[in-house]
Amino acid sequence: MTLRRILLVALGGTVGTAARLGLGLALPDAGGLPVAVLVANVLGALLIGVLAARIPASTDLRLLLGTGVLGGFTTYSAFMTGSVELWADAPVLAFAYAAGSLVLGLAAAALGLRIARPRPGAAS
Fold first, then answer.
1. Which strand (E) or helix (H) includes residue 70?
2. Which long-range contacts (CB under 8 A, 24 or more apart) does 102-110 make?
3. pTM of the prediction?
4. Cβ distance 55 to 66 under 8 Å?
5. What residues contact 103, with CB distance under 8 A and at least 6 apart?
6. CA-to-CA dists, residue 10 to 70, 90, 110, angstroms
7. Distance CA 111, CA 105 (A)
8. What is the pLDDT of residues 14-26, one digit of tens each?
């Protein structure tokens, strides 16, 4: 049981990490601003919100998609590294990027939860 769950996360993480790399290749940094990281984190937060509203935490599917795919797709370490690197040349932009990323990520996760949460009386 535990080995299967580890393999699900590893498989999902491989897919998510490859998707993030593809996004990074498609969306290069704009003036030092790590655009692909911002897009990955905000989109990932939205999708994690949708998963949290729709798929029970204890299921293998949520482990594969949430922890694995979306955990590999989003990246806190690249977000922090990009912010620090940007700070050296443009501290105001770095602050705006970091604060904006956090606000957009929280809003995206809340939106994902809101739009995906089953409505009372609605067919699921």
1. none
2. 104/38, 104/42, 104/45, 105/41, 105/42, 105/45, 106/45, 108/42, 108/43, 108/45, 108/46, 108/49, 109/45, 109/46, 109/48, 109/49, 110/49
3. 0.90
4. yes
5. none
6. 12, 37, 27
7. 10
8. 999 999 999 999 9
Per-residue DSSP letter, 119: P
Token pair listed for 54: 């729709």
- 6: number of Cβ within 10 Å: 11
DSSP, res 24: H
Structure token digits, residue 20 = 């993030």
Report angle CA 104, 26, 31 to the nearest 5 degrees.
65
Which pLDDT value is given to residue 1? 72
Residues 40/20, Cβ–Cβ less than 8 Å: yes
Q: Where are the alpha helices (DSSP H) in 34-90?
A: 35-54, 60-62, 71-73, 76-89
